[in-house]
Design a protein that fits this description.
Length: about 240
Amino acid sequence: MEAKKNPDADLRKNSLFYLALGLALVTFLIWQGMEWTAYDEVVKEETVDLIESDEEEMIITEQLQQPPPPPPHPAPEIIEVVEDEEEVEETVIESTETTEDEVIEEVEDVEVVEEEEVIEDVPFSVIEDAPIFPGCEKYKSKAERKKCMSEKVQKHVNKKFNTELASDLDLEGVQKIFVVFKIDRSGNITDVRSRAPHPRLAKEAEKVIKSLPKMKPGKQRGKPVGVNYTLPIVFKVQ
């Protein structure tokens, strides 16, 4: 009995090839389906997140609306006019312009009183006209009168000062006393101050200076001024 089919047309010889091709095709389709589904879900989730975040921002940035201010009170229908009972005097400003008919009175000369220049006290070393000690008027030049006054003051102190006081105080050696005083604008002795090794010596020096006679005041630029005088008293205790 002869076979009806052609041996070359037998499909079983390529069955393995077709099986592998089918599996590959099915795998490809499954993979494509999985990729397409996963992409849709991701996009959906992202869209939801964006919408939710927008809602949150809208809630945070929402501003509270302030209520409108109350309406103003209505004006009164009737306005009462209050009369001012007090009378106000009107101020009349007179013109300062003059006319040809007006007579202008002559103003007397106004005396200008010059203020006297006050000169501060001047040291004896730079005074222009030194105070004049009684008995020094005989000298004509300023330098001679100045020298005479210094000599007279020194002689007066040497005569009046009690040097034995230092021995009573058990002081030894050279004793130095500095006295400062002023001959004021009237020629009187004022502002006597002293510095000494012992208070009793300072007191003795002040007493002697205060006993100086009144002098003619010194002058600066032709005006009487106070003159400051400094006198050192030096003696040695044997």
